[in-house]
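ok trying this again, last paste got cut off
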Amino acid sequence: MSARRSARRRGRRALRIAENKLLAAHEAQWTAAFFDVAKSTPFRKVKVAFHRGFLEEATLPLEALDDLEPLFEAAPLLRRLRFDSPGFTGQTHAPPTLTGRLSSPLLRRVKSLDLRLPAGGDAVAVELARCPHLTGLHTLHLEATAWPIPDFPTPMFSGPPESHRLTVAGASALASSPHLKSLRDVKLASNALGGAGVKALLEGGWPLVSLDVSGNQLDDTALTAIAAAPHLSTLEHLGLGAGEYGDGALTALAASKTLTSLSSLDLTNSQLGPRGLERFLAALKLPALKALSLRGTGLGDAGVVTLAKSAASRQFTSLELGENTVTQTGVFALADSPNLGGLTRLQLNDAWLKKKAVVEYLAASPTLASCRIYVKGTLLSRAPKKKPAEKKKPAAKEKVAKPKKAR
């Protein structure tokens, strides 16, 4: 690390410490006016966050969206808003809706909008797409799907279950909106898009920096569409968790000629396996890719050994490998690999790592000497390096004066 980068990190850390001290002393005073108008409900608590010393972010009950003026009067620099619908109370209630709630021109100030509206379905996406006040929106996170709970006596939401899902229709509405052209960060995780929905979403042509469509019953259609999208050359983070992908789609993603800026890829809980990982690594031509999450992808020891032996692994600085049924065979392969010297972060959490000898072997790895290793979420402690004992110079022998011979 260069001296300049070290100086910048120290400067940022000093600023964070100073900010935390100021907030500890004055946050209650600075937020009093906001909490006077932003009321928590029995199911949703109001939360705030400061950025650069200003109250810029708030988490609010959905009802607060009905009247934004008092909120912005109390906090004029609000730019990041999250709205949560009420949680399940044990009784059936109507799905959350945005109808009539997006009419305020104050929404033009909002740069980031996070909506947790289970069962809102495609209707929520349609209302967002129609809103003329979201032209400055850069970040949109939307969760609007609820699945019926089998054998549960009381339905959570009224109406037909198929209307409680965000599907390809909602994705198409967002993509075709003339008011959402400024989007750079889109997260539609845990919905019901499917591969067709992801393909429809990409029709928006947004030059995204981050896209997360994990947990959407994804298939090869999603991967091949993303790999070929010409407008995703600026994409840095991609979330594709909980999908079922074939070898051909994984190869297409790894060899994509357009994802040249992709630095972080999340495949958590996808059906990958050792074979899928082997195909992905063999085809890997994503020059910026540094962080790879393979948690819960069915790798086992075979997949981890493949990762350790692959020369493609030399480009990674961060790996998440937990929940892959890794034994000491996989751990030893990681510790002995000559291809993982660039790692600065490694996440593991399999049961085998409870064995002291295995953990000690991992901690002693010279290849991973500069890597922060997390075992079950806890940073692995390492024995401090012993300083070599200083060699003391032998003391100079004192010269004994010879007695002079008497004449």
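PB: full thing came through this time. The chain has a mean pLDDT of 92.
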